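[Meeting: bench + compute handoff]

Bench side (C.D.) handed over the final construct sequence. Compute side (W.E.) agreed to return the predicted structure before the next meeting so the bench team could plan truncations. Sequence as handed over:
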Amino acid sequence: MKTAIVILNWNGRPLLERFLGNVVQHSAHLATIYVADNASTDTSVAFCNDYFPNDVTVIQNAENGGYAKGYQDALRHVEADVYVLLNSDVDVKEGWLEPMLSVFESSSSIVAAQPKIKDLKRPTYFEYAGAAGGYIDALGYPYCRGRIFDSCEEDIGQYNDTVDVQWASGACLFIKAAQYWEVGGLDEDFFAHQEEIDLCWRIKNKGYRIVAVGASEVFHLGGATLAASNPTKTFYNFRNTLFAVVKNSASPTYILLIFFRLILDGIAGVKFLLEGKPKHLVAIIKAHFSFYKHLPSLLKKRKILQQRQDYYQIHSIVFEYFIKKKKSYRDL
């Protein structure tokens, strides 16, 4: 299979200096490497052209449209059977690519996959953004093998298997190109955060499989674009989860589901306020108003996406985590 690793960049020369060389060293024998630049104003493009003129192809997007639009614009210029959407702050090691590509050859029904994603700052622990494969509860809350909310497990080999999951992390997402475009690719309205969950939900609704591959691992710095402490990240996470539920949930009472989610979001906002983080409460309020603004277009998308199914294993990860105090996936 012809494989393309596509790294989205926006004013990220320090990250390219730190991580791009390893991607080239450990991947160029099996994949073509692209840097998709989102109209950077720093010297990122010059760095790629100066230091990797023969190993990296630069695609220059006309604007910074965020993660979703950035990849949508760039991937139209990439010819490959498999895309690898790789964050610019991910470190890879020798042998990371082979197990990932092998899994696609094992079954034609597998369309998307991710490796284990571990914390670069704490290399024996899983990282927030994807850990060892993602799931969604009945209310649309995402969680992972190896990470529930802010609790990340240590990797002691408990997730070294290859298993079906509901979503694969956008930090290191392997996806067949044909099916990527078949389901419409990333939704540009999301801008950033949770867009890979929406994409994977649509892939699952088409009857395809998504897997997490325990034989491969990468190391994610995390927070390079938006730190968890940034209210903007709170805005996108809360808003975009609502987007994904409206578009993709099979529940005939999804309106009631959304209403309940809005109440839980309000509780989360009060929690932020009590923790002395009023800007995050404001971010949730803004997220809800943005959701209401986009609701008509979301309902149109829902109508188009007729084929829907729910895959949740847990009714409420909030209840399991905060009430029953189950802090790891293996406890669920």
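W.E. noted at the follow-up: The longest helix spans residues 278-304. C.D. will use this when planning the next construct.
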